[in-house]
């Protein structure tokens, strides 16, 4: 539940569908945006979109990648034949952008709009506490530079809808005289569109003016997904893709699936499957702090996973969650041994003894593997019925010989991390 | 149900105080558990009045709801409209909205219209950001404080607790939240506030006030807002804050430190330093917990805070230590004088909880041994309902378990079913059926009509079954010969129950009797009472043709035989004394009576009135 980035094509299609309603029919945007995914049958496209083989085209990946031009992920002024070849050569292939490596799987194809550098403008709206900040710069494009310093900024207080005249006066003063009015009218509509659809961020760089038409050439946007019940109909069939480079492992997808099945929360991110420090922490806030502490104590590279379980999952789900982590952590032994942090703060109402039954079941099942791989387990938890929970999980030491230490609320929440890692260095 | 005073005169609060020991709130939406938790806190805090003045239930009706206030029960009013509630409770200045993310903004707007509601708490998670920004702007104009959304709320130790803050009552007592200390705490996370209160309780003289502002991008009030209140409050001696990756609120704190707007010691840590371990942008659980710029990272914020003079640990691991050191310094400097620990009132245990935990016991008022509906499936005796059908024990089997507490062999169950079939009806003229019909025709419902018939069952109607069983078994058990038995009855001047029929005779046998007799002869391993009765019949029919063993007799006697085959004699006799045979007749004949009721309804029969000419009117 937060601000979520959308695909460029989805944002532009929304503009094509709705912007005319906010500009009194002026500055229509034609829906000439095609999304191509791994399943798309490209042979069928020319038949469906007549313009595809008639116009010059632009092709780029549509996966929330910034500065595509600089990473050579942009094909300009091309025809369909070339575009098809270009996409085929890249589809489902790994690429590295900056520090992030990911698989290309979505492309956007649109008509190429011939224009000059002087026709490019920068336009953005960002959300701030007091309202929205509208940014404009009379030069646009990839080389615009430090826009935060350069741009003209206009604060629109929450609830206000500035007129075109206001935009003309306060925002586009530096634009060429003959284009001020049209840009101001366009931006007035864009702001209404942005506010009414509950966008949280919208950047068009560049906005291009050719004759009497305005084109959004490059668009990045975020929606406030909590507003789905208000604006969902207008959004249409919109997707919230994961950030580029986020490749889900089967285990992560499995936990996602479990998460979807329960009213509780189950989360897992594998950071480094070879890492020696694994965590199984209750609570969203606590889980971050455990990961922080591992990082702050200098063991970031050894941190194998991030995750949390919360909202009182039942025994079965807790068991499946624990089992998934234990399975991952015992896949490959490490001579130096491993650590499992079963952490958590003081629960509000969750019955600790009850949630521990699932974890205990999984620990029993993986007992032999855990012992063989010299896994040292540290437990810390508080809240309703914690004493019983801790006693039960601690009993595994006697019962099956696990190397396990157990602590309650008298011990500082993250102390088990330093206790574990003292021997780690 | 003696309530303490439910309202109290409002005492003037300082502008930096949102709550005190007399603060009362409205709870928006019926939240029974959260309300009770607030009242439990009130009790351990030794409050005179409950902190909940009224519940606003927009989808309900005005009324009263029962709650506990310590060991006693009190009534808390419920209003459909917030305005009505406010008119009645002019001292209330806090509104806690448990409305969903859809309707929470509406509840806040409603509270805006009521001047007295200075503090508004929004618990819901998922309120659209734009909508929230509107509310924040409006609150500022109207000089109101919003806590939330997406929060558990907050607590002023020993004074006022919002909703579910601080968890169970055990935790509240454990973290010494029933009386004030000197620490002002604020965090984004509500989930971690319990942990923070635990840390504060263990390392200082305790919490003064703690607020969780909520994890949204645009909280109604900020970390900074609450720190500034604590700074101004002379009762707060040190500040503790837990920030979070994402947003720039922490830089306002940095600025306040630099400009000496915050002068009390501030121990602060910003969580989310692990974000750098992730290869892609990471969004933690909270909507606001995402760094869009370097300055929004936890590392940058911790560094800036440290530089500005906050006490920043090296990691969360030292957080408690830094809090403890800061506290000790204040004690040493004489700024805090730790007082003696007051004794917290003992919270009466919740009955259901204590029972579950095995802490208390109580004698039960009822015992039941024949069935149990509490588990996954219904049990008749030891048999799960699925087995009842899998093993096809039939109606006789079910009756056998529920009446006699064991599943008797098939022959016996079948016999029970035979009895039920034989007694199911005996025409409309018998007194019970007649009564049922008369009642039905008087317009009565099925149950009334049925009961009207059943109430006729007794010594003269249906009672012969029971009587026959008792008479014959008594004679048999006393070792009387059939002749001695007949003579005894004759001497007493009593008819032998179960002998004799109005029309049927030796030469014109009752087929019902024949059927039953044949079944028993074929399937019972022994039937001494029936054999005895047949000897008696031989003698009586030799006197008069129609003094046969009739259907009531054969049923009663054979049933007694059956019970004696399956149970020790004493047990079998007890069942008969309990009225098992009457029961069998009532059960079977109910089928017929209900049939007559439906028959009369189907035929749309009018009211029956007995004709005069059929009644002999006489004067004595």
N-to-C terminal Cα separation of chain A, in Å? 39 Å
What is the CA-CA span between the terminal residues of chain B? 63 Å
Number of helices of chain B: 23
**Spans of chain B with pLDDT under 50 lasting ≥5 residues?**
1-8
Which two chains share the most extensive interface?
A: A-B, 63 and 57 residues
Multimerization state: heterodimer
Map the helices and strands.
The complex is a heterodimer of chains A (425) and B (620).
Chain A (H helix, E strand, L loop, with lengths): L2 E4 L1 H15 L11 E3 L8 H4 L8 E5 L13 E4 L1 H11 L3 E4 L2 E4 L3 E5 L8 E9 L2 E7 L9 H4 L1 E6 L6 H7 L6 H20 L2 E12 L2 E4 L2 E6 L3 H8 L14 H12 L3 E6 L6 E3 L4 H13 L8 E6 L4 H15 L8 E5 L9 H14 L1 H6 L2 E6 L5 H9 L1 H5 L2 E5 L7 H8 L3
Parallel strand pairs in A: 15-17, 17-18, 18-19
Antiparallel strand pairs in A: 1-13, 2-7, 3-4, 3-7, 5-6, 8-9, 8-11, 9-10, 11-12, 11-13, 14-16
Helix pairs in contact in A: 1-6, 5-6, 10-11, 11-13
Chain B lengths: L24 E4 L3 H13 L7 E5 L6 E7 L2 E8 L2 H7 L5 E4 L6 H9 L6 E4 L6 H14 L2 E3 L6 E3 L3 E2 L7 H6 L8 E5 L5 H11 L3 E6 L10 H10 L5 E7 L4 H10 L7 E6 L26 H11 L10 H14 L18 H6 L14 E2 L6 E2 L2 E2 H6 L3 H11 L5 H14 L7 H11 L4 H9 L9 H14 L4 H11 L18 H13 L4 H16 L7 H16 L2 H10 L1 H23 L18
Parallel strand pairs in B: 1-2, 1-5, 2-4, 5-6, 6-7, 10-11, 10-12, 12-13
Antiparallel strand pairs in B: 3-4, 8-9, 8-11, 14-15, 15-16
Helix pairs in contact in B: 3-4, 6-10, 8-9, 13-14, 14-19, 14-23, 15-16, 15-23, 16-23, 17-21, 18-20, 19-21, 20-21, 21-22
């Amino acid at each position: 539940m937060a601000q979520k980035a959308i695909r460029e094509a989805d944002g532009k299609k929304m503009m094509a569908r709705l912007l005319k309603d906010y500009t009194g029919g002026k500055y229509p945007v034609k829906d000439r945006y095609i999304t191509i995914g791994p399943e798309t049958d490209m042979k069928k496209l020319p038949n469906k979109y007549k313009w595809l083989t008639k116009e010059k085209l632009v092709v780029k990946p549509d996966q929330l990648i910034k500065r595509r031009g600089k990473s050579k992920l942009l094909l300009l002024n091309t025809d369909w034949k070339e575009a098809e070849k270009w996409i085929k050569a890249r589809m489902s292939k790994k690429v590295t952008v900056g520090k992030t490596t990911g698989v290309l799987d979505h492309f956007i194809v649109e008509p190429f709009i011939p224009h000059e550098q002087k026709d490019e403008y920068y336009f953005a709206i960002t959300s701030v506490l007091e309202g929205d900040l509208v940014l404009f710069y009379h030069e646009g494009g990839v080389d615009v530079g430090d826009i935060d310093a350069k741009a003209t900024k206009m604060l629109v207080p929450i609830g206000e809808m500035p007129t075109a005249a206001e935009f003309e006066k306060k925002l586009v003063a530096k634009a060429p005289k003959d284009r001020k009015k049209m840009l101001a009218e366009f931006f007035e509509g864009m702001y209404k569109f942005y506010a009414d659809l509950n966008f949280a961020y919208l950047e068009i760089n560049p906005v291009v003016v050719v004759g009497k038409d305005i084109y959004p050439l490059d668009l990045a946007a975020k929606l406030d997904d909590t507003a789905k019940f208000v604006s969902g109909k207008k959004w249409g069939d919109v997707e919230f893709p994961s950030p580029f480079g986020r490749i889900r492992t089967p285990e992560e997808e499995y936990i996602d699936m479990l998460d979807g099945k329960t009213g509780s929360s189950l989360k897992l991110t594998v950071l480094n499957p070879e890492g020696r420090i694994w965590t199984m922490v209750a609570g969203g806030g606590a889980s971050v702090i455990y990961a922080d502490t591992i990082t702050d104590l200098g063991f970031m590279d050894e941190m194998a996973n991030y995750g949390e379980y919360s909202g009182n999952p039942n025994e079965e789900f807790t068991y499946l969650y624990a089992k998934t982590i234990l399975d991952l952590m015992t896949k490959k032994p490490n001579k130096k041994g491993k650590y499992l942090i079963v952490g958590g703060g003081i629960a509000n109402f969750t019955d600790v003894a009850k949630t521990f039954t699932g974890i205990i079941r999984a620990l029993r099942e993986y007992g032999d593997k855990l012992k063989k791989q010299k896994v040292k387990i540290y437990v810390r938890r508080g809240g309703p019925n914690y004493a019983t929970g801790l006693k039960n999980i601690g009993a595994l030491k006697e019962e099956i010989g696990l190397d396990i230490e157990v602590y309650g609320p008298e011990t500082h929440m993250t102390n088990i991390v330093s206790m574990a890692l003292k021997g780690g260095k | 149900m003696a309530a303490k005073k439910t309202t109290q005169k409002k005492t003037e609060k300082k502008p930096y105080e949102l709550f005190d020991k007399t603060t009362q709130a409205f709870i928006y939406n019926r939240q029974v558990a959260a309300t009770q938790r607030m009242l439990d806190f009130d009790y351990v805090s030794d409050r005179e009045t409950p902190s909940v003045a009224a519940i606003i239930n927009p989808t309900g009706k005005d009324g009263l709801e029962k709650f506990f206030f310590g060991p006693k029960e009190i009534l808390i009013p419920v209003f459909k409209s917030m305005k009505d509630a406010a008119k009645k409770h002019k001292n209330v200045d806090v509104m806690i909205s448990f409305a969903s993310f859809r309707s929470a903004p509406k509840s806040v707007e409603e509270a805006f219209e009521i001047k007295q509601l200075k503090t508004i708490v929004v618990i819901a998670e998922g309120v659209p950001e734009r909508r929230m920004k509107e509310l924040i702007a409006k609150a500022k104009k109207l000089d109101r404080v919003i806590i939330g959304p997406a929060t558990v709320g907050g607590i002023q130790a020993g004074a006022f607790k919002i909703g579910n803050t601080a968890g169970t009552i055990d935790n509240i007592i454990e973290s010494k939240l029933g009386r004030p200390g000197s620490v002002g705490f604020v965090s984004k996370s509500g989930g971690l506030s319990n942990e923070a209160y635990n840390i504060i309780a263990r390392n200082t003289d305790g919490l003064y006030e703690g607020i969780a502002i909520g994890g949204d991008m645009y909280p109604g009030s900020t970390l900074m807002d609450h720190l500034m209140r604590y700074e101004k409050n002379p009762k707060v001696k040190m500040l503790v804050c837990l920030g979070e990756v994402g947003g720039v609120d922490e830089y306002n704190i940095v600025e306040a430190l630099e400009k000496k707007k915050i002068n009390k010691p501030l121990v602060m840590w910003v969580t989310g330093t692990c974000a750098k371990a992730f290869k892609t942008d990471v969004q933690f659980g909270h909507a606001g917990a995402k760094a869009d710029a370097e300055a929004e990272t936890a590392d940058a914020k911790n560094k800036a805070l440290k530089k500005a003079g906050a006490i920043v640990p090296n990691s969360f691991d030292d957080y408690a230590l830094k809090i403890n050191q800061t506290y000790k310094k204040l004690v040493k400097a004489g700024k805090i004088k730790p007082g003696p620990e007051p004794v917290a009132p003992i919270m009466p245990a919740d009955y259901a909880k204590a029972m579950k935990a095995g802490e208390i016991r109580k004698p039960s008022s009822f015992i039941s041994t024949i069935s149990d509906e509490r588990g996954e499936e219904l049990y008749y005796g030891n048999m799960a309902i699925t087995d009842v059908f899998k093993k096809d024990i039939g109606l006789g089997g079910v009756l056998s378990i529920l009446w006699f507490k064991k599943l008797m062999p098939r022959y016996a169950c079948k016999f029970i079913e035979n009895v039920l079939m034989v007694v199911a009806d005996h025409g409309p003229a018998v007194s019970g059926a007649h009564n049922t019909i008369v009642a039905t025709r008087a317009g009565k419902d099925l149950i009334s009509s049925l009961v009207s018939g059943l109430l006729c069952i007794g010594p003269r109607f249906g009672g012969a079954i029971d009587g026959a069983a008792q008479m014959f078994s008594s004679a048999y058990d006393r070792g009387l010969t059939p002749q001695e038995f007949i003579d005894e009855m004759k001497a007493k001047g009593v008819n032998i129950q179960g002998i004799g029929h109005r029309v049927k005779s030796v030469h014109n046998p009752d087929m019902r009797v024949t059927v039953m007799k044949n079944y028993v002869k074929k399937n019972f391993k022994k039937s001494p009472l029936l054999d005895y009765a047949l000897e008696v019949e031989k003698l009586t029919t030799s006197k008069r043709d129609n003094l046969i063993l009739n259907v009531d007799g054969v049923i009663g006697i054979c049933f007694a035989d059956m019970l004696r085959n399956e149970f020790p004699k004493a047990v079998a006799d007890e069942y008969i004394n309990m009225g098992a045979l009457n029961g069998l007749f009532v059960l079977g004949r109910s089928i017929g009576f209900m049939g007559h009721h439906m028959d009369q309804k189907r035929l749309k029969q009018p009211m029956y009135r007995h004709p005069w000419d059929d009644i002999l009117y006489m004067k004595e």
